Each structure stands twice: as C-alpha cells, then as structure tokens.
Amino acid sequence: MKFLSDLLKTTEIKNLKVTVMGLGLNGGGFASAHFFAKHGAKVLVTDLRSREILAPTIEKLSGFDIQYVLGEHKIEDFENADLVIKNPAVNPKSPFLKAAKRIETDISIFLSLCKNPLITVTGSKGKSTTVSAIYHVIKEVYPNARLGGNITMSPLSFIDDLEENAPVVLELSSWQLADIKNMKTFKPPVTAITNIYPDHLDRYGSMEEYVADKQIIYQNQGTGDFTLCYYDDSWGHLFASETKAKAFFFSKYKLPKEMDGAWLEESGAGFIKHNGKTEAILPEKVKMSGAHNRINLLAAGVALYLFGLCGQKARLSDNGAGLKSEVIAKHLSEFGGIAHRMEFLRQINGVDFYNDTAATIPQAVIAAAESFSSPVRLISGGTDKNIDFVVLDKLKGKTESMYLLSGTATDKMIPFLNEYGIPWTGPFNSLEEATETAFKESKSGDVIIMSPGCTSFGMFKNEFDRGNRFKEIVNNLRT
Hints:
This protein has about 475 residues and is of the alpha/beta class. It has 16 helices and 20 strands.
C-alpha cells in the first residue's frame, strides 16, 4: 500500500479526484472531505446512509463544492478516483475498494504528512480513557499538544493548525492500525497496549488475526523507543518479547523486585520503578471510580513518564523535564473521565445513574459492576459480534438484576445468565422501557449502569447515539 506522501511527490492535492467512502457522524469521513476540499481537490462523498441521516455532517461541509452519492455506492466513483478514503470500519474485502487505484484513511493521511512526536495507544478496552488522561496531563505541560484518532476526533481536523514539535496523542483501533500496516515512517517514541480481550470476532476469523492488527502499533519502533505492555495479560508478555523497543510493564499488582515497571498498591496509589529509582506516579485519591479506571490512569501516567524520557528524541522544548512524576501525579488526580465511559449522569432519589455505553464487550460490563460496593443494576444487551459470553459468570453476586435490550447478542447472553443464576428481566424493545423498569425496581443507594457489553446497531445509530439517548432518558426521569 502506498501513502499520500508518495503520491504528493508527483502531483498536488488540488489536482486529485478524491472519493470519500463513508461520511459518518463522528469525525473521520467529515475531516477527510473537509481537508481535501479545503485544499482544492475534487471531492465526491459516497455513503449508504440517507441525506436525512447525514444532514448534520453535510451541513458542516456546505461551504465546499462536494458531490454526494448517498443511499448507494457506484463502482465508477471508485474506479475513476485518484484516491479513495475509506472509513476504517469498511471491510477491506469490499468489491468497491477492490476497484480503487489507491486506498487510504484519515489516519494514514495524517501520518503521511505529520512529523510531530507521537504517543499512541491501542487495546481492547480502556484506550479512550487512557489517551484522554494522557492528553489531560500533557496539555498542562505542552499547551499545543493535540488528541485524535479513534476517540472520534480525526487528526485531519487539526493538521493544518498543528504547531511544529507539538506532541500528538493518538488512540488507534485494530482497524485503523490495519490500514497503516506497511507505513514504515510510523515510529512512535512511546506506544501503549492497554489489554487484549476477544472483540470484533464477527470481522476477524480468530483472536490471532485480531491481535496481529494490534501488533502493528510497535512494528517499526526501535531501541530508543518504549512499548508499554500490561503485565497481567498474557498477550502483554508476547508483545514485550516481540518489540524492538524497550518493553515496559504496568500491573495491578507489585512486579518482581528485579523488574522495572509500574504497579498499584492496595491503597490504589501507583508507583513506577526505572533504573533503580522508585517514584509515586498516581495518588490514592482520584476523581474517577472503578478499579479498571485506576489501571487506565496508571498506564497513562507511565506513558507520560516514558515520553518525558524520550524528550530529546521527541524534540520537546525542555527535553521532557516537564513530565516529572510529581507533575504527572498531580494532574492525573484531577482527571474526571470522559463521556460514555462510566460517565456519572445524576442521582435521583438516592439512585446513581452511569452511562457506560462504550462497554461493548462482556469484560467491560464486569469491570463496571466491580466498580461499586453498592447494589448494581445493569442495562445490557444488544447486537452480536461473535463474542463468547461465558465470562458472565463473574457477574454472579455483583448485580441485583440485569435489564436486557432486545438483540442477537442478548439471545446468546440469556442461557449463560440462567446457568449462572444471574437475575434478569426483559428483553425490552426500547432503552426507555428498560431504564424506567430498572429505576422503578431500585432503592436509595443503588447504582444503575447502562453497560451493554454488545454493539448498538439495530436499535441505535452507534454506541454514542445509544449513550446520548440514555442521557436524555435519565434527565427526563421524574423523581
């Protein structure tokens, strides 16, 4: 696969015919169309969804001369394009993509043009919280730093305003990484892999194929770089054995005495050991709830610390001196989390409501339930993506009841819930009905979490639409 930097050696952007496949509602397609139209390319946008659904995004592009083909794809729009920009979610086996001369994504375009130092994060869960915590801290030290990627902020949206040497924090999904597999210039000084769980197996043939795309994140790193791996995950040990960078572990528990790395004490405080020196990097008191979020904060802190060690290589103005452990710990303690990930909404009659719509695998639901000592009621279920729900046995004794949304994944969940003796009700054909039922059955001190463990297609446009709908429902509940 060739990249935009190669193409620009022979032509200019303003001379390109660009087809954007998948306009979307959350960043990448819009940013690509905007970037190329702004720079004078002839842009055609094609999307299977209707103009009515895409109206908010189309309105943002109203100032540009862009052609739209909606509700269908036409093979000639791919055959005649100099460049096709695909949404990472589009299966690369698409016959339309096979007709294209050159295929890229917003991420590959950004990386082709950007020379700024990177901190990159991937993993099955926790990566959005981790990159957001990294950004929360790093912008306090380097105000011109930017955040983008899978967190629904395309880096193309800020590439024209990106200051030289400003750090860029990128969240990268397995699909986004697959699209830059052969990009030799992708060499982040620090990369982190939060964890690996079965996910997207409706698209991947096996766990090994899924993990292979995650491994791309460190494929070009060198001896002066760092690969941050999760010690408590067997996959993390594989990554550490493969990377050419210096492998650095983080863990929920104390590491072997002879090992450099980071860990959590029983108090929740986090420490890092490097070259024989041990420093506090995460305080006991933080704003975020949940043990899984504390490990995400630890990973963020370690990534920042290691980035500081790469200061000269990363061309930081103070060679990384600003990212000292005490600075990192202070700002991590102030990070309050992000939308759609264990997001506290409100308390009604003593019942706390949390929006955890980004929990799209069962392990994330378990983590949500384990975040509280109070009785937990879970709103879960949805569309299947070929995931095994056998792990739901860990919910036994940790939830008062589950309120299931209708869907193909829910049909797979129910036999396991029955086998494990986990109470449930439903399935409900609307999120509103499930939420109202959970609220009616709750008492003061309970916690209601919308943590689906599945994808959202069918009942909602996407997981963020699901989360926003839940917020509306909760805000409209009467006391």
